């Protein structure tokens, strides 16, 4: 199991226990089955960013606290140098760099996301979360499925969408895709 996922799973369990929230209640909030949620807390299941976003709102804590176990402290600005974003690897295929994890009271969560090409022809894993999302392709080409529509985005293309719609991404042409994702 990925060490970061294990740490997030421990935080999820600890917070749920501390707040005296049942597995059924938090699973309903996340729009997943109790069994799937238990897989998140055990570290057996990858935890979609949308699920983490829903949990952070339910628990009234920042997404950064769930992801990295630390609350942000910067109030005026937060500088992130190239390649220095707080890294998180949810799976071998998806890698995230949080670009504003040190800023308290954020209205948006910006990430640089890298998706490795899929050597197998698996369907796109879809997830959803509250709010809105914007994706801007920095490098490569990706297939983005949102609300039943499949769109191909090339370098320089962007898409802004209702994040409550089921959505997912996939690298195309056998190459890694890198994009800016902003969750609002």
Q: How many domains?
A: 2
Q: Which segments are poorly predicted (pLDDT under 50) over 5 or more consecutive residues?
A: none
Quaternary state of the chains = single chain
Q: What is the 3D shape?
A: globular
**Rg, please?**
16 Å
- Please write the CATH class name of the largest domain: Mainly Beta
Continuous helix count? 5
Q: Any guess at the CATH architecture of the largest domain?
A: Sandwich
Q: Please estimate the helix content.
A: 25-40%
Q: Strand percentage, roughly? A: 25-35%
By CATH, the superfamily of the largest domain comes out as: Jelly Rolls
Keywords: DNA-binding
Domain HTH cro/C1-type: 12-66
GO molecular function: DNA binding; DNA-binding transcription factor activity
Protein name: Cupin domain-containing protein
3D architecture notes:
- Residues 12-66 form the HTH cro/C1-type domain.
- Keywords: DNA-binding.
- This is Cupin domain-containing protein.
- With 184 residues, this protein is an alpha+beta fold.
- The chain folds into two domains: 3-68, Orthogonal Bundle (434 Repressor (Amino-terminal Domain)); 86-183, Jelly Rolls, CATH 2.60.120.10.
- 27% of the residues lie in helices and 28% in strands.
- It is built from five helices and nine strands.
- It has helices spanning 3-18, 23-30, 34-42, 49-59, 63-68, and strands spanning 86-89, 94-98, 109-115, 132-139, 142-146, 149-153, 158-162, 167-171, 177-183.
- A six-stranded antiparallel β-sheet has the order 1-2-3-9-4-7.
- A hairpin with a 2-residue loop joins strand 5 and strand 6.
- Helix 2 packs across helix 3 (34-42).
- The protein is globular.
- It starts with a helix and ends with a strand.
- The mean pLDDT is 85.
